Structure formats: structure tokens, C-alpha cells
Amino acid sequence: MKKFSTIAALIAAGLSSASLTAAAAPADATIAQAQAIAEKSQCAFRADAPDKHVVVRGDTLWGISAVFLQNPWCWPKVWGMNREDIRNPHWIYPGQIVYFDRANGRLRLANVAGNGTASGGVPTVKLSPRSRVEGLGAEAIRSIPASAIEPFLAQPMVVDVNTLERTPRIVSATENRVNLGQNEKAYVRGELEGSTSFQVFRPGVPLKDPETGNVIGYEARFVGTVKLEREGDENNDVHTFSVVNTKEEMSVGDRLLPVPPTPIMSYVPHPPYDDVKARVVSIYGGVSVAGQNQIISINRGREHGLDLGTVLSLQRYGETVKDRTDNNRLIKLPDEKYGYVFIFRVFDTISYGLVMEVTDIVKVGDNVISPIQQ
């Protein structure tokens, strides 16, 4: 059987040298032993991982990670990425090759006509400085399928309580109309904070924290966009806007949020930086259950350390049942992990995520935890 060095097994498994000493005393370990060590880590490579993968258009970071790794959210660990790298991974493009460096338990990147090689004959890519220009990274592969979340990126989906209290609001329309259509004028009060283009939304269903019962936000119904025509002044704090377009009629009382920049969804899938214990708050669209590629909200957000690309595990609370073999004594069954959620939009206290790789339906109230807690 082919030998696999103990150090290689250590790196592949992501263990410390002290852990290795306890886990594998021989100077060399067989592949089977190395895999046994790796199984103790959350960041093990797949037993059937290929030697390389040619990146093609339509690939995603999540998909490529799953080709090599048992857990796709382990991508940053095997690449040795820091936090800034995770936020700006515009460096994998169609036509490049991802190599599995088995000797060092790492993944490496090279161009198809890669110049030079790393130890073990693995090609490496030579980097050169690039100027930051608009559109840089537009061709880089995405974290997850863009089509699944694009409709949710630009329009407000949820507004937390603190944000709702400070958003500008429509207070009147021309000729004292209640509703407004395209090209009509809307009069607004509130702080604009330098923005001139706004989305108009209507606070909808209140979102309650499953743990406390408190309202932590509102699902927002997008109704259209407006642009600033004339800003109020110290003598009159009413701003004049014109309606650019409408999805439905705007009304007095509707709220405004600045139009967000369109993000490039190339955030690397990664576990949270701190342990997270959250709950599913709602399933987008008002339905009672969710499945693969549907959108859910959870009761944790920016204030709890979540950022774009965070991957969390979905768990179902174990039921309390009667043990018929022990005089019907009540016992609690173990919590069961059944999938992942990829966080793609983060607010102060709430986040939205895409349901990934589920083996069961998602229900409001289900546990959402750090993958490392499994």
C-alpha cells in the first residue's frame, strides 16, 4: 500500500503536532490511517477527491469545494486564507485549474498554461499587480448559483426595528392624493444621509424571535423606487422626490431605504468566526416549510459576528417521546443535523440565507448552529 507521511496526514486533517503524536505514533501512516485521522477533523478531504479540477463557466466556489472536501465550508482552511481573502476572492476564473496537493494536504491554483511548479510538481500561478477598476471580478466564479438569490439582493427583504424607526417616510403627495404612480411627486420627511436614490417599501409581516417572542424586524414589501428632486432645508424639512417606477402603488406612510450597490456574490463559504446558536425566524414568502434553494431568515446578524458567505448547520430539535420499554418515561431524542444555510444578506439582528444540501424540510424554530459544533 502507498505510504502517506504523518506530517501530510496532520496537515490534511488540520490537527496540531501534539494531537498527531497521540493519534499516530509510527513515523509513517498508511492512507487508511491518514484518513482515519482526517475523519476526526471537520475539514477532511473526500476519499474520492480528484487530482485536479478545471474551472468552467457556471462553476461555484461551493461546488468546487464539494468536489474536494467533505465539508465545502472548509475551503478557507485548506487554502490558508485570512479574513480579508474570504471577503475578496476574485481570483478564480474559468480556464484555471485547481490542483489537489496531496503531499501537503492543500489546494493550489494555476493557469492552464501554468508557469513553474511548487514542491511535488504542483503548478502555481504567478500573480501580478492589478488596478482596481469597476467590474473587476465580474467574471470570477460565484460562491453559490447567482440565479437562486439575485432577486433578493437589490430589494429590501427585512428591516430590523432600529432601522425602521430611522428610515425616511412619505408624508404627502401632490393634490393630497393617498397613492402615487410613476412620475408623480412624493413629499418625504426624515434623514437622507447624503443618498439621492431610494427604494420604497412597506413594512409587512412582523418577525418574532423564536427564543424571546419579541419582534426583531419586519418583512418588507418592495413597492418601487424614487429619486430626490429637491432636498429640504433648515426652514422646511420636507424633501421632494419623483417616482421613478412602481411595482405597486406607493402610499403615504411607505418608507425609504437607499438603493444598495449591486454586490458581486463571490464570497468564500466559511464557518462563522465565533460560535453561533440561532433559530429559524421565517421562511420567505409566508410559507410554513422550506426546501433546497429556498430563502429563510435567522435571528442572528451583523451584531452577532455574521457576514456574507457564513455557512451554518441546520438542526431539528429532538422530539420528546415516551420510552415504552421503560414505563413510558419521557426522553428527548438527539438533535439531528439535516443541511446547511449559506448567509448572503446580513442586517443588524437578522440574516437571510439560502438553504443548501438538505435531507429534510426546514421549519420555523429549527436550530441554526456553527458547523464546528456538530
From TrEMBL:
Q: Which residues form the signal peptide?
A: 1-24
The record places domain LysM at: 51-100
Sorted alphabetically, which Gene3D superfamilies does this protein's record hold?
A: LysM domain (3.10.350.10)
Q: Write out the entry's keywords from A to Z.
A: Signal
- Name one matching Pfam family: LysM
Keyword Signal on this protein?
Answer: yes
This protein's name: LysM domain-containing protein
Lineage, top ranks:
Bacteria, Pseudomonadati, Pseudomonadota, Betaproteobacteria, Burkholderiales
Key word Acetylation present: no
Q: Which organism is it from?
A: Undibacterium squillarum
